[in-house]
Automatic annotation (TrEMBL):
Top enzyme category: hydrolase
Protein known as: Triacylglycerol lipase protein
Keywords: Hydrolase
Domain of life per record: Eukaryota
Organism: Dioscorea alata
EC number: 3.1.1.3, 3.1.1.32
Length: 454
């Protein structure tokens, strides 16, 4: 009887979670379509037209005189040019003239996204690498960038990177690839191509949420047969197989290099994809395995904190201790998409019959969270080896900044408080992004002469 009750509660939770995610996704998509339609009807006149003129007047060439700031989106995210006129970073990119917002795969693996980011900046055809592509069962080459968005990028013209959620790990993997000279035809890359890394609610050490969504805690790679992720997997496969061009122009999960569309895969290919015999979900070359504790440990085992790069991290939290029990800190201050997960993540207990994900793991350390990531995961790289770090209450405490150290602070916010919807964060939105941009422009530079200001 007890197991039956648990099973019924699990199905109810799955139904509620699925509906909340589906409705929110539909809301974002329909908002983008409605915005585009309104622009077409009005011919971009009046207020919209004046905004576009103002933005075009601010556009300046990226000639290397001022290091650009690259904003890297997280899971289910999108860059400039997707979802109509919506901004993943809620318009923060308008705060500076030298900002790039790349559109990377929203569900592709950390590795694939790091490769895409390199070619987005340097230009050329995305090369995922022969060995990796063969092992994961996808094409070696992907999208072509006829003109890189910052082709002069090198150690003399470095870049500031800001990553939200999984975007922070993408930046770290890219920097390690640069240090390892992992890009064929680019033998001069090194870690100093990255001037600074800012992690905003960054998935630096994984999250226990992956297990609630459907990843198996036994290995961190396979999925539970009935789960939110299984529904997501089926939806993504059908979406990519149908390959409706106008839909994919609005939003693309990033799996084009797996060639899942109906013209190439056919009905038999669709069956194989759905049965888990082929595709990214079969090979594990997608984002969720990278976000489990086991997957993050494997990634972090090969990632370094470099002595000439500046690191800063904002860890978010929407929990609080009540009489020794960790609970959500607010009823109205947490997005409906995240509220259930905030509560669930405070109650996470690693299965007693499963080996601990790393030496020294304790359940209580992972209770505080923002609905998507555990706060302990966002401060600085911790597993399998803890990297140099320094906690601060106020940004001014870390000036002058020292490279090679992860400065971090904890912010009361949920995981999407500072993205998508600017109004939710209110004045905190400007406070946060102004501090990030000001740090990049006034406090982070390698030369002894003052930095060039925009």
């Amino acid at each position: 009887m007890g197991r039956l009750s648990i099973g019924i509660l699990g199905m109810i939770e799955l139904y509620v979670s699925s509906m909340v995610h589906l409705l929110y996704g539909f809301y974002i998509f329909s908002t983008a379509v409605a915005w585009d339609m309104s622009q077409g009807i009005t011919g971009r006149f009046r207020l919209s037209n004046s905004n576009n003129e103002r933005e075009s007047n601010r556009t300046v060439p990226l000639d290397g005189s001022v290091p650009p700031i690259v904003l890297v989106h997280g899971i289910f995210g999108f860059g400039k040019g997707r979802l109509g006129g919506l901004s993943y970073f809620a318009g923060a990119e308008k705060k500076d003239d030298h900002v790039l917002v790349p559109d990377l795969g929203s569900l592709t693996s950390i590795y694939d996204r790091a490769r895409e980011l390199f070619y987005y900046l340097k230009g050329g055809r995305v090369d995922y690498g022969e060995e990796h592509s063969r092992a994961c069962g996808h094409s070696r080459f992907g999208r072509v960038y006829d003109q890189g968005h910052y082709p002069i990028w090198d150690d003399q013209h470095p870049i500031h990177f800001v990553g939200h959620s999984a975007g922070a790990q993408v930046i770290r993997v890219l920097q390690q690839m640069l240090a390892d000279k992992a890009f064929e035809g680019y033998e001069n890359t090194n870690e100093d191509w990255v001037l600074s890394v800012t992690s905003l609610s960054g998935a630096l050490n994984g999250t226990t949420r992956t297990y609630f969504d459907g990843m198996q805690p036994e290995d961190g790679r396979t999925m539970k047969p009935i789960s939110l992720l299984q529904l997501c997997r089926i939806g993504v496969i059908v979406y990519d197989w149908l390959n409706i061009s106008w839909l994919k122009n609005y939003y693309n999960f990033g799996f084009d290099h797996f060639e899942m569309e109906w013209r190439k895969a056919g009905l038999s290919g669709l069956a194989d994809l759905l049965l888990g015999n082929s595709g990214p979900f079969a090979s594990g070359d997608w984002i969720l395995p990278d976000l489990t504790l086991q997957g993050s440990l494997n990634l972090n085992s090969n990632l370094r904190t470099f002595p000439n790069t500046f690191y800063f991290s904002y860890a978010t939290k929407r929990t609080r201790k009540f009489f020794g029990v960790t609970l959500p800190s607010s009823l109205l201050g947490i997005h409906p998409l995240l509220f259930i997960r905030v509560l669930q993540m405070t109650q996470w207990r690693h299965p007693s019959d499963v080996p601990l994900p790393y030496k020294g793991y304790r359940d209580e350390d992972w209770e505080d969270n923002d609905g998507a990531l555990n706060t302990i995961s966002m401060t600085h790289p911790r597993i399998p080896v803890e990297h140099p770090s320094h906690f601060i209450d106020n940004d001014s405490e870390c000036h002058p900044l020292q490279p090679g150290i992860w400065y971090y602070k904890i912010v009361e916010a949920d995981h999407i408080f500072f993205v998508i919807n600017r109004d939710r964060a209110g004045v905190q939105f400007d406070v946060l992004y102004d501090s990030i941009f000001q740090r990049c422009r006034k406090h982070v530079f390698r030369t002894t002469s003052p930095p060039t200001l925009p």
